[in-house]
Amino acid sequence: MSGQGTRPVLAAGGVVRRTRDGRTEIAVVHRPRYDDWSLPKGKLDPGEDPAAGALREVEEETGLRCRIGDEAGSVSYVDGGRPKLVRYWLMDPESGTFVPGAEVDLLRWLPVDRALPVLSYAHDRAFLASIEGLLS
Fold first, then answer.
1. What structural domains does the chain harbor?
2. CA-to-CA dists, residue 25 to 8, 81, 93, angstroms
3. Does position 69 have pLDDT exceeding 90, yes or no?
């Protein structure tokens, strides 16, 4: 099944950024269930506003309460035979602390050039490379 003609799964997430030693770093998370590295994101609840869902998912996965910025763009791909659309917003952490859990067991802060090869999926790498200029 190619996923064509199927309603996409809607998801949202954040490109969470901070500045350390004059350099912008972004948060990447490891999900043990899939043994992958990605940007924090997740499926929207039915009827949920995408920006609110992005904030909720980022907090659930990272423990960080963030201030939301501009929408950074979206990624589309097929996952489990169904199309998936993930919208991302730029986010800046305001409070909170990462605590490892069953869904996300590691969080790394990396400059974009070091984050790109860590991300597990080509669509995530292409998206991050395309928005690199927005992150400073």
1. 9-131 (3.90.79.10)
2. 31, 33, 12
3. yes
At 81-116, the pLDDT tens digits run 999 999 999 999 999 999 999 999 999 999 999 999
CA 94 to chain centre: 17
Task: Please tell me the distance from the alpha carbon of residue 38 to that of residue 116, in angstroms, as a whole number.
Answer: 10
Q: State pLDDT tens for residues 118-127.
A: 999 999 999 9
For 8, other C-beta atoms within 10 Å of its C-beta total: 15
Can you give the three-state secondary structure of the chain, one letter per residue? CCCCCCCCEEEEEEEEEEEECCEEEEEEEEECCCCEEECCEEECCCCCCHHHHHHHHHHHHHCEEEEEEEEEEEEEEEECCEEEEEEEEEEEEEEECCCCCCCCCEEEEEEHHHHHHHCCCHHHHHHHHHHHHHCC
| Rounded Cα distance, 98 and 14, in Å | 15
Q: Determine the Cα angle at 16 with ends 14 and 17, to 5°.
A: 150
